[in-house]
Give the backbone structure.
Amino acid sequence: MTFRPSRLVAPALALLALSATASSALAAGQCGGDLRQFLAGVKQEAVASGLSAQAADAALANAQIDRKVLSMDRGQGVFKQDFLTFSQRSISGYRMKNGIANIQKYASVFDRAEKEYGVPAAVITAFWALETDFGAVQGDFNTINALVTLAHDCRRPELFRPQLIAAIHMVQNGDLDPASTTGAWAGEIGQVQMLPEDIVKWGRDGDGDGHVKLKTSSPDAILTAAAFIQHLGWQPGQPWLQEVSVPSNIDFSLSGLGRERPVSDWAAMGVTPRNGSLSQNLKAALVLPQGRKGPAFLAYPNFSIYLEWNQSFVYTTSAAYFATRLAGAPVYDKGNPDPGLNDPQMKQLQTKLQALGHDVGKIDGILGGGTRVATQAVQKQLGMPADGWPTQELLNKL
C-alpha cells in the first residue's frame, strides 16, 4: 500500500516521535527555495533536536529531489473499489496460505508480541500481508530522497519535515542507509510500511541484533507493528470485527460507524453471530459495507485501531475481516447486494446530496463516510431502508 492519510495527518500518531521545540516548530514551516539551503536548515534543526551533525551530513549529503515522488503525490489514485471486490482480490488463497505459514514460522515472536503488547498474531499478519505481501513488495523509492522531496515541496512540509528528521535519527542509530534504504513514495519503510517517526518511537528489536531493521527482519517488523498497534489503543483480549446475520425488519438507520450501542441491544433486535458468540459486554456498530443485502459485521471498539492505521473504510474493513479469517472465522456470506453506482453516478449523487444541504466533502465519486451518512439520511426521509448503500433506485428518486 502507499500513502495512508491517517498515518501522516493525525498529529497524535505521526508527528510526536521526537521532542518538539519552538525552533523546530518554526523550521517545520520552511520549504522550497534552493535545495542546499533547505538541507542546511534541516541539518540545523536535526542538530538542535539532539542528533549529531555527522548523522545529518551522512543522511543528506547526496539527497536530491525525486520528480517521480512529486508526480505520485499529485496524482494519487482514489480508492473506488467496493468491499466485496477489494476483499476478494486482496484476501487471496496465496495470502491465506502464507499468512498461516508465517504465523507458524514466527510463532515465538508472535507469542512475545501478544504477551508484551496484547496484539494477536492474526491482526499483525493481516497488515503484513496487505501492506507488502510479507515483505515481497516494499517499494523502490529511495527513502531519504522521497522525504527530502516531500518536505521541500510546499504542499505539506509540516507533515514530511518531521519524518525527514526522524530518518536522520534512524541513520544515527544505524537503522537506515541513505544510499540503499528504499520504500514507498511517501517515506514508509519495511515489511509493515512504517513511517520514520513511528519507527523511531515504536521500533522494537525482535531478533536481538541491536537494530530495528523493518526491511530485512520479520521479527523486528512483527514486534514493531505490535507496539504501534498497542499505542493506537488496542484492547487485549477483545474482538475487533465479527460477521453477523441481520433480520430483514431491523431498523437499518441504526447501522453505521459512529452509531455504537451495547451488543446486548443488537442481540435483542435479532442480530446473531455466524461464528462463535457475541461479546455482550461490549459496544459495537453494525457495519453494512454494501448495504442490507451484503455482508454484515459488528465492529467492536478495537476496530477503531484499523481506522487509525488507514482511513479507507474498504481497506480497514477488509484488513479486519482478513484478520478474523486468519484467526479461524469462515468466509463471509457475500449475500446478493444491490448493484452500486459507477463513478459518474456517484458524483451525480454527491452533487444532489450536497444541494440538499448534506456535507459529502469533495465531489469525487468515492463512497466515503460523509456520503454514507448523507445517503442514509435521505433514504430514511424517502421511506427506504436506510442502510447507507447508494443505488440507482435512490438516485432515481432524487
About this structure: The first strand starts at residue 141 and ends at 142.
